[in-house]
Amino acid sequence: MRVVSFVPVALTAIPLASALPRAYEPIGRRSSINSLLNDVLVFDAPAFDDPANPGNTLVQLQAFVSTPEISATPLLDAAQPFLQDTIGLNITNDLDRVASRLALFTTIGLGGKDVPVTVGGCGTSPTLQGTASNGMAIQNISLGACGGAQALGKVNSETSSNFTLFPASADGFGVISDIDDTVKVTHTLDKLLSAKATLIDTPVPVTGMPDVYASLAQSLNNPQFIYVSAGPFQLYPFLKSFIETTFAPANGPIMLNNLTTTNISQILDFSNLDGVFDYKSAMIDRIHGMYPGKTFLAVGDSTQKDPETYGNAIRKYGDFIQCAWIRLVDGANNTDARFAAAFEGVDPSKFKLYNDTEIPSLANIDVAGGKCS
Ligand SMILES: *[C@@H]1O[C@H](CO)[C@@H](O)[C@H](O)[C@H]1NC(C)=O
Ligand SMILES: *[C@@H]1O[C@H](CO)[C@@H](O)[C@H](O)[C@H]1NC(C)=O
Ligand SMILES: *[C@@H]1O[C@H](CO)[C@@H](O)[C@H](O)[C@H]1NC(C)=O
Ligand SMILES: *[C@@H]1O[C@H](CO)[C@@H](O)[C@H](O)[C@H]1NC(C)=O
Ligand SMILES: *[C@@H]1O[C@H](CO)[C@@H](O)[C@H](O)[C@H]1NC(C)=O
Ligand SMILES: *[C@@H]1O[C@H](CO)[C@@H](O)[C@H](O)[C@H]1NC(C)=O
Ligand SMILES: *[C@@H]1O[C@H](CO)[C@@H](O)[C@H](O)[C@H]1NC(C)=O
């Protein structure tokens, strides 16, 4: 690895680790890019036809380079009073679980790092150039004529983290899906239950959705599934493992938000809608940039800003979003006025609001034939 570690930043983490009173083992390191000081996470990546070079594939690769994960003890010590007193969640018996869910919040992003990777079946070793100061890099990287099939990629280092390459053709279907309370029970509107679902509980799918997505995987002929959540990228390992196991036929890349805070109140603030519309709209722009010729079904729920985001995307991109499905979550704003505003100017045949009783019947909708309900 040609980039040398930025030692001063790494060292800021160490006094915390050595000052720990309690016995959490340091979290297992994801990968080592340079001796003991850097870790690399490469996210599962969408790949698409290179518009400038027919027959070539571009991968939109995202990596996070950071100091290694350290003990979560300081974070938990700071979080516990808030969780106990404000939310009413006692994590005393679940400290290991919580520590592992929050592990990435104990890292510090490192700027200016290059990340060379290898993609299975491809001879070349492309490199992500220069992470931003938050440790993140997102770049389109050419795989040349290779990269047309789903493949495993890895970071070029001794203990590398793997990622999956998800290529998709320029046409055909795709599915844009929210995660929290669309496919995974998060209880977004309830502070105690959402903190518990995020920090402690084994994740549970919204009943019936795994079957609906498995059915879409077939009826839409292996569409590109892309999960778009406004949640912090630090939850990626948790969410990835959930999607990969519970939604296996609908596995796909997950787009998450940048968050630098370690303030647990902000990490768990699902009710904070600031920026959610703009973030999700930007992710749809990003997907449109890669797959302008595809037709997407967009699936979300009524807790946050999915109706507004998808309604706006339909107005902006027309048939690129063929259809929006919105799960009506109890306690959310499910008024006619809200949906009339969100889907103003959108043909009512292009969106469907559904309650939990109707979930199994979603699989019967002829989306491939152009229908939405
Ligand atoms: C939290 O749970 C632990 C273990 O059950 C218990 O000992 C402790 O008293 C609880 N704390 C509070 C504030 O309820
Ligand atoms: C990466 O994938 C290879 C090949 O499947 C596997 O042998 C290796 O254990 C994986 N590494 C990690 C860190 O998951
Ligand atoms: C996250 O940070 C990277 C690096 O600054 C940036 O390129 C990317 O657009 C950011 N993503 C979001 C969702 O803001
Ligand atoms: C964490 O964020 C909350 C909400 O924004 C704020 O009220 C609180 O003061 C912050 N705590 C710390 C330690 O900064
Ligand atoms: C990647 O390529 C897509 C499609 O050409 C484009 O929309 C997008 O802006 C590019 N992203 C970056 C980071 O260059
Ligand atoms: C629901 O949304 C509509 C449209 O944005 C708004 O006018 C109304 O005040 C909201 N109702 C509640 C209870 O928040
Ligand atoms: C769900 O929607 C169906 C069909 O519109 C309706 O018959 C049923 O009463 C609804 N169920 C609930 C619990 O709202």
UniProtKB/TrEMBL annotation:
UniProt KW Signal keyword: yes
GO cellular component: actin cortical patch
GO function term, MF aspect, one: phosphatidate phosphatase activity
Keyword Ribosomal protein: no
Keywords assigned by UniProt, alphabetized: Signal
UniProt domain Phosphatidate phosphatase APP1 catalytic: residue ranges: 173-327
Signal peptide: 1-19
Domain of life where this protein originates: Eukaryota
Pfam families reported in the protein's UniProt record: APP1_cat
Protein name: DUF2183 domain-containing protein
Biological source species: Mycena chlorophos (Agaric fungus)
